[in-house]
Write a structure and sequence with these properties.
Elements lengths: L9 H4 L19 E2 L23 E3 L8 E3 L2 E6 L7 E7 L4 E7 L6 E6 L2 E11 L5 E9 L5 E7 L10 E2 L15 E3 L6 E4 L5 E6 L2 E5 L3 E6 L4 E4 L10 E2 L9 E5 L6 E5 L5 E11 L6 E5 L2 E5 L6 E4 L4 E6 L2 E5 L4 E5 L5 E2 L11 E5 L5 E4 L3 E5 L4
Antiparallel strand pairs: 1-6, 2-31, 3-4, 4-5, 5-6, 7-8, 8-9, 9-10, 11-12, 12-13, 14-15, 15-16, 16-17, 18-19, 19-20, 20-21, 21-22, 22-23, 23-24, 25-26, 26-27, 27-28, 29-30, 30-31
């Protein structure tokens, strides 16, 4: 799922702490503060603007300015500051319960969610005076439920690059490429797990699974069972990289040649190739249907049932939930039944400015983008 206009672009999210110099950032309190109670009702997103499938549900405002990240029904999002104020990270359950908040300097927007020894954690960056440099970036992991420190701070070579807890310094001005050598941390300890200075390509980290590549093999390590996949199985891919600006569905990686706009969708737990020529993908949580964008078509892979496809007609994939996939353009939004691929009624005819689903959690709560971001949850949760 791509980040949409009006929200912080993925490339900006990956620039955390880039170029920050101590003394230019506001004073922050980096330790998380526990929050209590539920998020307040949204003041700018009303029920009339919601998809019909979400009618009658509670509409809450956790305080996020950007689409949050989610893992195992836990969410973390950013509240951007007024001029000169710290960033505020806000963690919440998918039922709208607020968990904790933490401050960071305004330049430290980079963050990731992963698992440390099986438990969900948030990895945040920070910046401080360096020993040999003007500024040193560090990373710390916090229990996503409690805000307790799990590991860190540990020094990293530069901003978070992703996917997952992958870091690198910007490339020198005279060098080719977007970054210097990439490193990936061990999600359990924060120690360096792989470094591109040692004849390996760091592909990404996905919920505790670390993907690296050599000249002929893609390999998985970390959580789960290690596996290897010959790069020839991915076609002509010689240096696999995650497609920029696209969040692959949980448990998958979307990989292509550097600079490519489509690639292979891979199950990171098994190495199985789920689909090829993929531009974007989401998983609908109720049915388990994988919905992809392949070329100029929307394609569905129901967990039970036949594969379907239909022309996308210049629209993009936004999210999938409540058995619907939502596709959008600058002027329209449609709902598609994920089991059959047929058109569905998305909104009441009178809706002029719809609130568009942009993320659906594992349990079915929906983040919508209307006049502000809101979290829509069943009233009896």
């Amino acid at each position: 799922m791509k980040r949409h206009a009006g929200l912080l672009a993925a490339v900006v999210l990956l620039a955390g702490c880039a170029g920050a110099e101590p003394g230019t950032e506001p004073v922050v309190e980096p330790e998380p503060t526990v929050l209590e109670g539920a998020a307040p009702p949204s003041e700018r997103v009303d029920e009339a603007s919601l998809p019909l499938a979400l009618s009658g549900l509670s509409i809450l405002d956790p305080g996020w300015d950007d689409v949050p990240l989610e893992i195992d029904g836990l969410l973390l999002g950013l509240d951007h500051p007024d001029d000169g104020e710290p960033l505020r990270f806000v963690a919440a359950r998918e039922d709208g319960t607020l968990l904790w908040e933490a401050e960071r300097p305004p330049s430290c927007t980079g963050f990731a969610l992963t698992r440390a020894e099986g438990r969900p954690v948030a990895v945040l960056t920070d910046v401080a005076p360096g020993h040999d440099t003007v500024a040193q970036t560090s990373a710390s992991a916090y229990d996503l439920t409690t805000g307790e420190l799990v590991w860190g701070p540990v020094d990293v070579p530069g901003p978070l690059q992703g996917p997952g807890i992958v870091f690198a310094a910007p490339a020198p001005g005279a060098a080719m490429g977007d970054t210097g050598p990439r490193v990936v941390l061990d999600p359990d300890t924060g120690e360096v797990m792989a470094d591109e200075e040692h004849d390996v390509v760091v592909v990404g980290e996905y919920g505790g699974v670390v993907l690296t590549a050599t000249d002929d093999t893609l390999s998985a390590s970390g959580a789960g069972t290690p596996w290897d996949l010959p790069l020839t199985d991915l076609g002509a891919m010689s240096a696999p990289a995650a497609l920029p600006g696209v969040d692959a569905p949980p448990g998958t990686a979307l990989l292509g040649e550097p600079g490519a706009t489509s690639g292979a969708l891979i199950d990171v737990t098994t190495g199985e190739i789920l689909a090829t020529g993929v531009h974007d993908a989401v998983t609908e949580p109720i049915s388990g249907t994988l919905v992809t964008v392949e070329g100029d078509h929307l394609v569905g892979y129901p967990a039970t049932g036949d594969r379907w496809e239909r022309p996308l007609e210049g629209m993009s994939l936004s999210a999938a939930g409540n058995l619907f996939a939502y596709i959008r353009s600058d002027s329209a939004i449609r709902a598609v039944n994920v089991v059959t691929g047929a058109d569905a009624v998305a909104y009441d005819d009178a809706v002029a400015t719809p609130a568009v689903p942009v993320l659906v959690t594992a349990g079915g709560a929906t983040v919508v983008d209307g006049n502000q971001l809101a979290l829509v949850v069943p009233s009896d949760w």
